[in-house]
Write the structure tokens for this entry.
Amino acid sequence: MCSPGPKPSPNTCAPDLRARVFRILAGLWVWLGFVPVLLPAQAKSVLIYYHLWFSAPPHSPTWGWHWTMDRFRPDRTNALGEQDIASWYQPLIGTYDSGDPVVLEYHTLLMRLAGADAVVVNWFGPEPVFDYATIDRRLHQLLPYLERTGLKLVLCYEDRALQAPAPDPGHPPPSALDRARRALQYACSAYFGRACYLRWKDRPVLLNFGPQVLRNPEDWPALVRECDPPPALFTINTPAPGAVGAFAWPPMWLSQAPGTGGVLSAAALHRYLGDFEQAAQRWPAAISCAFPRFHDIHARAGTRPYWGYLGDRGGDTFRETLTRALTNAIPMVMIATWNHFGEGTLIEPTREFGFRDLALLQQLRRQWIDPAFPPTTNELAMVWQLYQLRRAARRAAHPQTDLDAAADALANFRFEDARRLLQGFSRTPPEAAPESQPARP
């Protein structure tokens, strides 16, 4: 996923004093090598972009495309124990299935303890085309884990799904507008009314990764009005008609400019972020963005052309973009992404980075949002331990009551209780046996 929508334009309204000061300070960031300028603390919501599109044995019968891209063989490992997957990075827990309850528990607990407030799920609608219905089914599985951890849900609709083949080949395909209408009406009935759904001014927040297909200026205002309640729509980079605002995203198109060598420089990145922040002053709402890197595997897989490279820089890319997002005037920040392994934008723990990016999120949340935020990397490690114990217990058909209690304790920041329960369980390791019961949300 790269940025398909229009690019942010500078604000042409008369700037107030705060805006002028911000631009002066932003210029100093560039001159000083992007040393963050610290603005007054304010309420912030931290969102994390999440993908439910991974399939892997034994939970699924076959490997999904997002692990293989029709080229890689995850069942093969090299001398270092690394799987042959469609990514430059190896998940700390190995390849996984997004419908596995143990994985959903592991991910949501880590997000909660890292400092997230909401999870933005990449969603294509419920149609039985490609893996769209499977992703939607996994979203329903995710809901109890969001509720247990107190995380909010947000949908990001990919309207490029409207280009998919018709779900019923025996009938003429519906129009793109009708398909979008059905998808949004389904989202309204299945998700928008849930207590765990994120709202802006009492309206459910809906992102659109585009629009890429429905570009008629009348389409999205009509679709939004037909929902009850109408969602607060955010489109990429700049608001489309019908949207209350926009969200930022890694601007990889800038790496294709002449003379860049296909690399997105820190200067170009921060110019984009500055333009977005300036333009957002005249929108009702906006969502800024932070990200660790962009290291795409698709060109190697032969699935699409090279989209550019944004270096990790030893964690500085994430530190700078996250600090900027937490200290600007925009009240929502989205981390892109939790687990887009194909584009390398993930902050999920990996063999290469461990818990580094989650620890940084914890640190900056304490610094700019909640000084009393208690979790540390010690508690992140307990979530990993819980995951390992779940796996062992499932293989041995071992009762998991203590692990259920430990998960509840972690979700509610009762860390001493969780530590005691995990230590007690690990002292009596179960014997290996066939897999059985899943994690209880």
